[in-house]
Amino acid sequence: MSIEINNESAVEVDEHAFQRLCTFALDQLHVHPDAELGIVFVDEAAMEQLHVQWMDEPGPTDVLSFPMDELRPGTEDRQTPAGLLGDIVVCPQVAISQAETAGHTPLEEMLLLTTHGLLHLLGFDHAEPDEEKEMFGLQREILLGFALAERS
Fold first, then answer.
1. Residue 67 pairs with which residues in a beta bridge?
2. CB–CB of 65/40 below 8 Å?
3. Which end of the chain is more exposed for a tag (fewer CB within 10 A), N or C?
4. What letter would DSSP give residue 77?
5. What value does the CA radius of gyration of the chain take, rounded to a whole number of Å?
6. pTM, to two decimals
7. How far is it, in rounded angstroms, from Cα 48 to Cα 78?
8. Residue 47: which of 66, 69, 25 has the closest Cα?
9. pLDDT by residue (tens digit) across 2-60?
């Protein structure tokens, strides 16, 4: 996997944790090992600009996804083709605030947001109740599996 991580925010980020998470998640989703992914951490002003430009919504948001080759998850019998998944943009300052509200660490929140963004890159959505159930269930499975893998 080619996973490029850029931290353009003022918040220190454990880039290795995100590298491990995405490698784990892409493997679980049977994505081709030559797939490319970008993750960018930006400050609130940059995220607000992206949020307005691409979603036509005011204020910064927590995560945005920009898919490229419209790849979808593979199966145990068939991986996705190699390609460019796209970019995930995370705002650590928004994640820190959400983590406080949710009662977990900023790292846990940013890992959750990254997983959420990755699933969007792979075509998952949560606009409808059945889509939300599928996406959030898969998100939970990936994060739990990753946590277990990290402990062993």
1. 86
2. no
3. C
4. S
5. 15
6. 0.96
7. 39
8. 66
9. 999 999 999 999 999 999 999 999 999 999 999 999 999 999 999 999 999 999 999 99
Q: What is the pLDDT of residues 90-143, one digit of tens each?
A: 999 999 999 999 999 999 999 999 999 999 999 999 999 999 999 999 999 999
CA-wise closest residue to 119 among 103, 102, 100, 134: 134
d(CA 79, CA 58): 38
3 state SS of 37: strand
Query: What domains sit in the chain, N to C, each tagged with a CATH number?
Result: 2-151 (3.40.390.30)
Q: Would strands 63-67 and 36-41 be described as parallel, antiparallel, or unpaired?
A: unpaired
Q: Which residue from 79, 105, 83, 103 is spatially nearest to 92, judged by alpha carbons? A: 105
Tokens of 135: 């996406």
* Annotated binding residues: 116, 120, 126
Contact 30, 73 (CB under 8 A): yes
Bridge-based pairing of strands 36-41 and 2-7 is: parallel
3-state secondary structure of 108: helix
DSSP label of 123: T
Strand partners, 30: none
Contact 18, 41 (CB under 8 A): no
